[in-house]
Amino acid sequence: xxAFVFPGQGAxxxxxxxxxxxxxxxxxxxxxxxxxxxxxxITDLMFEGQDENLKQTRVTQPAIFLHSVILASTLEGFxxxxxxxxxxxxxxxxxxxxxxxxxxxxxxxxxxxxxxQKACEAEPSTMAAIIGMEESQVEQVCEEIDxxxxxxxxxxRGQIVISGSVPGINAAVEKLTALGAKLALKLAVGGAFHSxxxxxxxxxxxxxxxxAPFSIPVCPVYQNVNALPSTDPGEIKQNLVAQLTAPVxxxxxxxxxxxxxxxxxxxxxxxxxxxxxxxxxDRGMETRSA
Length: 290
Description:
By secondary structure, this protein is of the alpha/beta class.
């Protein structure tokens, strides 16, 4: 069974989507529809903007969503058997499997981006990548620190991203380095995504998600919060709300998709990050870019 996966924040690059805009009439129409819906020309920032502008959360998230969803719309005979998305990418996956329409998906992603950027600006916070440590070791260190610091992304075996207050991350990086981590590196991100510090954004987004029309999808979405498949619109909504403050269980998601019959993975969107993570879960698994 062919699985389709959708990347999250960090995969963006200047020039993304320009080839789709130029090559496909349908893609051009969707990009222009997005410009009008958002109230600014996001295509200008995506195609020929400055890197620092594209890195702003309020721009990054809708930009990656648009690239992923519009790319999927150009794929001939696109019939996913299962889908998943990394963090933001879960919204792209939900459009791809028919749970959300394009307009509602873009509306929720933009509201999410604005709410997260506001939460980041309210209190300095950050994230760090930890490589070469057991999950249990990272979890224990996070628990021992008297600051907000939690595992945020279980990306692959031996690669976890932690998230929290600046003092908390600094303390965790120092302690994990002393314990023998191969790498404990603070990331250049806007804030502590997938941590309790995103609670204001979660509360703000919950009302919008609950009000949006979700349809029964054509195939299961494997969701970040529990790594399990779902086709129930109400359950999908609950998990999507919880995602903002809960860790992304990507390692477990890939493992469950393989156990449930995935024979190949196609990454739909900018970059190849997810393909690399999938290969770490199963070196023999076939992966490709859309």
